[in-house]
Specification:
Blueprint (H helix, E strand, L loop, with lengths): L21 H14 L3 H13 L5 H11 L10 H9 L10
């Protein structure tokens, strides 16, 4: 009896083409050679460092806790604000 093992990736990679200067490409080539990592992995690391990653559920809960009560001093309720914002021209209207 043979057993088949199925592997499922927990993420999806999107192929993306980017343009680099010669100097940028040389820097990536040198770092890839030095570290043994792929250029793609180096670019993903750089993106993670500069732009961060998707927030976790703990981050979402922390943001909700920070926002809790922020509407309490408003003179309009949330439903009325949404209706006013959706109605008519939004240009020139400000959040009060």
């Amino acid at each position: 009896m043979s057993v088949k093992i199925l592997v499922m990736y927990t993420y999806i990679m999107l192929r993306t083409q980017i343009s680099l200067t010669n100097a940028e490409r040389r820097a990536l080539d040198a770092e890839a050679q030095r570290t043994g990592r792929s250029i793609s992995a180096l670019i993903r690391d750089a993106i993670e460092t500069v732009y961060g990653s998707e927030s976790s559920s703990a981050d979402d809960i922390a943001a909700m806790r920070l926002a809790f009560g922020s509407w309490k001093d408003s003179d309009v309720d949330g439903a009325a604000w949404v209706e006013r914002t959706r109605s008519g021209s939004r240009l020139g209207q400000s959040i009060q």
